[in-house]
Design brief:
This protein has about 170 residues and is mainly alpha-helical. It has one domain (about 5-165). The protein is about 95% helix and about 0% strand.
């Protein structure tokens, strides 16, 4: 696979992931609205705000992934056409920079999930449990998102390393 194809596949994967995360966010927002409109218990009513916040955060993250990477596909093609060597070195530095963050994200989201479980268990009020569940959902969704992103990042980075040797 040549470099520009790998770069564009990276962007397409990020766009696809952004669309899935946007869909997830919309579903969580709809779920929050259902709890708000039809919930008859204190727990169901307490779910509205925490789940709406998680849904809106997921929607904004998904939209950010989509728009950033749609623009990036155009920028990549132009940058590669004008100066392939500079494109390779800048992408290599960029991927090396964010690949280092994946373990920290994994640990951070694991701690967030544990904090959500603690909140759920130690604050047995309706709002405590609702926020606990929302925090757990947020942590799992980010872990899920980063799991696939990390795999794509390592694959893209290996393409960059192989290509930079050839140039």
């Amino acid at each position: 696979m040549d470099l520009i194809t790998g770069s564009l596949q990276w962007c397409k994967g990020e766009i696809f992931e952004g669309r899935l995360y946007l869909l997830f966010g919309i579903c969580v927002c709809i779920l929050a609205l259902i709890y708000w409109k039809t919930g008859s218990t204190a727990f169901a009513k307490a779910m509205f705000i925490p789940f709406l916040l998680v849904g809106l955060l997921a929607c904004s993250t998904g939209l950010g992934l989509i728009f950033t990477n749609e623009k990036r596909t155009i920028d990549y093609q132009q940058a590669f056409a004008s100066n392939p060597s500079e494109f390779i070195s800048s992408e290599k530095a960029r991927t090396e920079g964010f690949i280092k963050w994946y373990p920290y994200t994994m640990y951070g989201m694991s701690i967030l999930i544990i904090a959500g479980m603690a909140l759920f268990l130690l604050l047995p009020t309706a709002s405590g449990r609702a926020y606990g569940l929302a925090i757990i959902l947020l942590g799992f969704s980010i872990l899920f998102l980063d799991h696939f992103s990390e795999e794509r990042a390592h694959r893209y980075h290996s393409i960059l390393l192989k290509t930079s040797i050839a140039h």
